[in-house]
Amino acid sequence: xxDTGFTTNILHADRHFGAEHGAIHKPIHTSVQYGFERVxxxxxxxxxxxxxxxxxxxxxxxxxxxxxxxxxxxxxxLGTVSFATGMAAITAVFLTLLKAGDHLVxxxxxxxxxxxxxxxxxxxxxxxxxxxxxxxxxxxxxxxPNTRMVFVETIANPGTQIPDLAAIGKLCVDHRLLYVVxxxxxxxxxxxxSTVGAGLVVNSLTKxxxxxxxxLGGAVTDTGLxxxxxxxxxxxxxxxxxxxxxxxxxxxxxxxRDMGGTLSSEHAHKISVGAETLALRVAQSSxxxxxxxxxxxxHPAVNRVHYPMLESHPQHALAKAHFSAGSWLLSFELxxxxxxxxxxxxxxxxxxxxxxxxxxxxxxxxxxxxxxEAGAQVRADMGIADGLIRLSVGLEDxxxxxxxxxxxxxxxxx
Length: 414
Ligand SMILES: *Cc1c(COP(=O)(O)O)cnc(C)c1O
Prior knowledge:
The protein is α/β, with parallel strands linked by helices. Helix content is 38%, strand content 14%. It folds into two domains: 6-30 and 61-275, Aspartate Aminotransferase, domain 2; 278-409, Aspartate Aminotransferase, domain 1.
C-alpha cells in the first residue's frame, strides 16, 4: 500500500497483513504456546526456515507482529521488534549490539533514564562519551577507533534541543558507525530518521504512538540502511542468510528470547488502536503547543520558552528542515524561579504528573522530580535549569488551555 497515506495505511494494515475470520482488528492472541501438526514444522520455526511462525510468546505473537508491521510501515523500514517499554527497547539495542571495550557516542541531551542507563553501560565496560550533538563537529571529535554507535534523540526531552541530524548521519556513513535515533517525541508522523541515514530507530510506543497513557511499549525498527556485514558484534549464529536481517535477528533473539523484555499482546492491541488516531492527535496537540509557546514567550512573567517551531529556538532552522510540526513537548522557565510551584498549583487543567504524550495535558517541574537523582552537576551539563517546567500538551480545546495559563500567570509577578 505504498501509494496510500499515513493514516490510511495504519487503518487497513491488519486487513492487508492477513485478516482472521474477517476481523477488522488483529485479535489479541493470548496463547503462550504454539502447537504444530508435524514436528518438522516446529523444527522449522526454531531454525527459522519457516517464516512468520511462532513457538513461544516471549519472542512474539501474531498480535505483536501486527503492531510491528504497522511501525515498520510508518517508519518505511525493513522490520521492527517490539518491547515491553521504550527503555526495554533502548536497553536491548545497547546490550545486544555493544560489548565491553566498545565505545558509544551519545547526545548529552537525552531522556533522563537513558542517561542513567549510560552509567550502567560504563559499569559493564562499555565506554560512553556524551556530547552537545546540536553541533556535528562535537560528535566527530568524540569518535575513537573503538566507537561502534552514535545515539541521539530527535527533540530532546525536556530541553527540546535538536541534534544536527543529517550531518551526524553523514559522519556515521563516513565512519561506518551504527546511527541510532530515538524518534519518540516526533514519531514517524513528524519525522522519519531513515531520511538522515539512521540504521536503527527507537520509538517509545507509550508516548506519541499509543497516545492515551494506558499502555507501555517500545520498538526498534531497522531502516535497512546499515551494512551489518561490516559490524563486528554479530554472533556467528546470526551471520546467516540475508545480511540485511542480521541486526534485527540478533536484537529479537537476545533482547526478547534471552533478556525477556517482551510486549504483551494486550498492550500491543491497545497501542495499535491508539496509533489509528496518531496523525489527528499530533496535528491538534502540535498546533496547541505552538499557540501556548507563542503566548508564553510574549508574557512578562516568563523568562524562556523552549519550542522548536519558535523562531527564537536555537535549532529552529533544523526543526523546519526536518519536522512537519513541533510536537506536543514544550518547556519554559518563569522569571521568578521561586514562584514556579505556586504557579503550577494554580493551573486547573494540566494534570500535575510525570509522563508524556497523553491525551490530557501534563505538567511537571523537572529538576526536583525526574532529574533529582541525577544531581546538580548532571542537570547543569544537560542544560536543565532549576525552574524548568515541562509541558506535554494534550487534546483539550486550545482556548481552554490558553485561558487557564492566562489566569495562572496573571497572578505571577513579572
Ligand atoms: C519516555 C521515553 C523513553 C522511554 O519510554 P518508556 O516507554 O517510558 O520506557 C525513551 N525515550 C524518550 C525520548 C522518552 O521520552
